[in-house]
């Protein structure tokens, strides 16, 4: 019998994955739609596995009591983890249900299958012919979004809905000192537990007015806990660290070149602030959330609320934007705490834009120092040290709920320092810190900062964004020192034929080496995500005058088997566009007391007028599918910085590439 996929081993019951209703086979999955098109791709895999047309398949999104527990939807792993499971399920269904024609009779036979069938104990039928996988099928989620139907969580209006808001402390570590015990506001009910303050009411306008008044009336004890934002590199290297040795291949020759690179704290910046709906019926809690991991969220909610996990149900409903561990889980606890005051009524807890930008988990600031040895045009030794906070503080880490409001309750549950995923899963601080090139003996080490008042967690690509930026910029600096072409230097040091093909294709499509006007530069970035995932090369062409204007991006990737070509291209284009925003604009600002980025003016993101044309090419491959959503971020950042250097002859090593940063680099070069 064939090897049982891990997600089937963990969820072996047929009825966990398959049901039938209204003449369609319902496919239940634990991976969630975040705007990345995953439900469409998995529907294509399921349709082929079941030997059914796509129209006969209905995807059922994640639910803690109806469907498999597939952990997190993160890390560009959804297709890699889910496709083998769905193919096993489909093979077992076909083995048990018999002939797949006529269609209606086949679906009826599927409906009659025993839902308690153990998928591990039945030999699957041979794979059915591929007819849907590999085609650019239209996204299943787009019609609702294009037509303005209430698909997003913030648009849901269940009967009896109440609105809720939570008043956040003014700064990290602040504690409530005083609020009138008899505080009241028209049309709302006050919910208070320690430093947790919220209001619930029938009318959203009353709730918002009450929240504003509550903010004026509450008194807080604040401290100056935040670091010096103008010296993050020194701060990241100070204090206690967990040392993470990644690679040590022996004695390194004397380095001939060293450089230090950095990125600031970044916010997820989702278009829609985080939201949740919760309802208590007796002692049972039902939550609608846009969490990336609803089973872990269920357990965390139960731990904070002091109830059995079996009494909590969480279903996933999509919201507009995600990009990693944003505040979706936190909003779920807010909703549960507010709804507990009004049993039997659903409460929609919606965060404000300032809440989202100042209280949602951040992407950690990072800094890396690289050194290398050049001998006869070859790199013969390499060292990479990277400092960062951890990149995951998701619910459930080390048995702690990790939910924001829990830390503000009279009986608080702590917010532990962020950790990093294990190296075998790609790591966090050290993700992509190992160069994929043949550069002689290599030494790579991470240094995870343990003490910080700023809460960090996973954002798209984790530490790979900074590490790839640093490696690929440093390679360009080495090429300058060697008098070599940057593309050729990479090809000369790359033994991976898939990587070589991606780089050569990118160079050809971007017209590498063709003449450019004055103040226009072309730059390159390349990486294999996590060292095991998608190969991606990006060539950026920029014009630099008073600011950086991106003329075009060329993205080439090998993502293995492509389930939905248009979906893969969308993911790469979106990743490159978001990385352009991070690289040119984004930075969380703060003083020693408070975060200062509270809106799109103080936290600017890429505007539509700045969005560059992005050409995406997928290199054909028969290898297993890997995710595309996090492959382009690091290469894009490096390509942009290298293009700025090509245009101006100065190197900006500290992100973002703002006009002020470029002026400082020019002044430093002239000094």
TrEMBL record:
SMART domains: Ald_Xan_dh_C (SM01008)
Domain annotation Aldehyde oxidase/xanthine dehydrogenase a/b hammerhead: ranges: 147-224
Region (Disordered) location: 390-440
Alphabetical list of Pfam families matching this protein: MoCoBD_1, MoCoBD_2
Top-rank lineage group of the source organism: Bacteria
InterPro entries: Ald_Oxase/Xan_DH_a/b, AldOxase/xan_DH_MoCoBD1, AldOxase/xan_DH_MoCoBD2, AldOxase/xan_DH_Mopterin-bd_sf, N-heterocyclic_Hydroxylase
GO molecular function: oxidoreductase activity
Protein name from the UniProt record: Xanthine dehydrogenase family protein molybdopterin-binding subunit
């Amino acid at each position: 019998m064939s090897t049982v996929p891990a997600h089937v081993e963990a969820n072996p019951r047929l009825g966990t994955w398959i049901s039938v209703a209204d003449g369609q086979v319902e496919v239940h999955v634990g991976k969630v739609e975040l705007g990345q098109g995953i439900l469409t791709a998995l529907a294509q895999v399921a349709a082929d596995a079941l030997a059914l047309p796509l129209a006969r398949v209905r995807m059922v999104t994640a639910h803690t009591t109806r469907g498999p527990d597939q952990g997190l939807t993160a890390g560009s792993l959804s297709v890699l983890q889910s496709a083998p499971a769905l193919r096993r399920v489909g093979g077992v269904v076909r083995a048990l249900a018999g002939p797949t024609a006529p269609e209606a009779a086949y679906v009826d036979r599927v409906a009659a299958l025993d839902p308690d069938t153990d998928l591990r104990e039945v030999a699957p039928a041979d794979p059915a012919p591929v007819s849907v996988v590999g085609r650019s099928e239209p996204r299943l989620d787009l019609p609702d979004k294009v037509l303005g139907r209430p698909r997003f969580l913030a648009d849901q209006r269940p009967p009896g809905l109440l609105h809720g808001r939570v008043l956040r402390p003014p700064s990290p570590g602040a504690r409530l000192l005083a609020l009138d015990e008899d505080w009241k506001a028209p049309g709302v009910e006050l919910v208070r537990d320690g430093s947790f303050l919220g209001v619930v009411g029938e009318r959203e306008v009353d709730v918002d007015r009450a929240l504003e008044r509550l903010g004026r009336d509450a008194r807080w004890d604040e401290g100056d806990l935040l670091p010096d934002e103008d010296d993050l590199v020194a701060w990241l290297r100070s204090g206690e660290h967990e040392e993470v040795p990644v690679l040590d291949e022996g004695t390194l020759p004397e380095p001939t070149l060293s450089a230090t690179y950095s990125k600031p704290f970044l916010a997820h910046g989702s278009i829609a602030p985080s939201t949740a709906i919760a309802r208590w019926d007796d002692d049972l809690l039902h939550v609608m959330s846009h969490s990336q991991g609803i089973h872990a969220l269920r357990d965390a909610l139960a731990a904070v609320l002091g109830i059995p996990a079996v009494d909590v149900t969480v279903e996933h409903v999509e919201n507009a934007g995600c990009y990693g561990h944003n505040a979706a889980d936190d909003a779920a606890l807010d909703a549960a705490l507010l709804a507990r005051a009004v049993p039997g009524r659903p409460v929609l807890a919606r965060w404000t834009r300032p809440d989202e930008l100042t209280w949602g988990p951040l992407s950690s600031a990072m800094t890396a120092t690289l050194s290398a040895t050049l001998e006869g045009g070859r790199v013969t030794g390499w060292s990479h040290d990277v400092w960062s906070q951890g990149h995951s503080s998701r619910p459930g880490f080390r048995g702690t709920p990790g939910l924001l409001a829990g830390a503000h309750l009279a009986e608080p549950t702590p917010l532990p320092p962020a950790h990093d995923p294990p190296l075998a899963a790609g790591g966090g601080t050290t993700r992509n810190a190992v160069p994929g090139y043949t550069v002689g003996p290599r030494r790579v080490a991470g240094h995870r900062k343990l003490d910080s008042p700023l809460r960090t967690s996973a954002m798209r690509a984790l530490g790979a964004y900074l590490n790839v930026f640093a490696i690929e910029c440093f390679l360009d600096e080495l090429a300058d020192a060697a008098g070599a072409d940057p593309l050729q230097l990479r090809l000369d040091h790359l033994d991976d034929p898939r990587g070589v093909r991606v780089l050569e294709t990118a160079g050809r499509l971007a017209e590498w080496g063709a003449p450019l006007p004055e103040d226009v530069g072309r730059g390159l970035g390349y990486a294999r995500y996590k060292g095991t995932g998608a190969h991606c090369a990006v060539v950026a062409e920029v014009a630099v005058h008073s600011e950086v204007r991106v003329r075009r991006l060329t993205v080439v990737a090998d993502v293995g088997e492509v389930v939905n070509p248009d979906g893969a291209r969308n993911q790469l284009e979106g990743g490159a566009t978001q990385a352009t925003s991070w690289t040119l604009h984004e930075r969380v600002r703060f003083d020693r007391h408070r975060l200062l980025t509270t809106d799109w003016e103080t936290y600017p993101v890429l505007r539509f007028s700045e969005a560059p044309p992005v050409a995406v090419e997928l290199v054909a491959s028969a290898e297993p599918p890997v995710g595309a959503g996090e492959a382009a971020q690091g290469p894009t950042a490096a390509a942009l910085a290298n293009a700025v250097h090509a245009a101006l002859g100065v190197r900006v090593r500290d992100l973002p590439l703002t006009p002020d940063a470029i002026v400082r680099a020019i002044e430093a070069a002239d000094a």
